């Protein structure tokens, strides 16, 4: 038994929401709270989808909050709207008003409160930019002692990045590029950080063979919802640059099943100016090193997902009243 507590800071992409669903399937993992960072999403859409996922999985005592932090470089609008597609799925539409509470606190204050109230140090899983965490640490540095480990999907160390804009040279990963100065600050702190960069997530694209295997177990409600969520990402497949990967889902599996990964210690710095703003660069010296996930046993990763998703909802789906 893992018997661990996780705090989840995500930014509302479809794979962030799939990561939430996956976390909620882990029986020995207690979710202390969820904060939505308004980066790769419009946060009200992402908070609604998050609360409804939590409802479906029956963990309605898990509070959700919205952060109002701002990054430096905005995500494309078309990506930010994606969680609204998830809200339009029948499983979510059938819930009129989610039971899972939306905190009245701002996401930064919420993060400070939840961490301070945690009775044991938590794993801080982060699948968007680090701005909410950095603001929370700046507001109350004592929360650091409540963080056992930060597991963060971010960076591109020895591979190209995924930012494609006019003045950028393509070396940065989006979660870092959104707020490179905060990333720089975070790396300067002496915190237990485990990074899941594009170097390893490039090995787990969303592919039809996996979706087919998942479809073959769609008698399970959770598997079916996951299938449909991934299907909404297929429109990003035709262009090479827009291939959708299991970025955040891979980082979430680091929390659930650590023994299928290998890691290395690396000291990193971040560029904060054009043309490579947000590039994560390995330093020669080893002081201040962080843990970087460098490989995954791919078959075991996909098997783990298939296994976790063989579950039904705790809440009966389609319980909404028919329209009159
Ligand atoms: O750079 C990967 C991060 C992950 O946290 N996000 C998506 C994941 O949630 C940004 C991103 C890169 N390419 C994308 C992204 C795409 N084609 N669509 C949406 N978001
Ligand atoms: Ca994300």
Task: Write up this protein.
The model has no long low-confidence stretch (mean pLDDT 94). The longest helix has 14 residues, at 43-56. Helix 1 packs parallel to helix 2, helix 1 packs antiparallel against helix 12 (221-231) and helix 6 (107-117) crosses helix 7 (131-139). It contains 14 helices and 10 strands. The radius of gyration is 19 Å and the shape is globular. It has an 8-stranded mixed beta sheet with strand order 3-2-1-4-5-6-10-7, sandwiched between helices. It has a two-stranded antiparallel sheet with strand order 8-9. It has one domain: Ribonucleoside hydrolase-like (Inosine-uridine Nucleoside N-ribohydrolase, Chain A, Alpha-Beta Complex), CATH 3.90.245. It has 324 residues and is of the alpha/beta class. It is 36% helix and 16% strand.
Short description:
The chain has 324 residues and is an alpha/beta fold. Helices cover 36% and strands 16% of the residues. The longest helix is centred in the N-terminal third of the chain and has 14 residues, at 43-56.
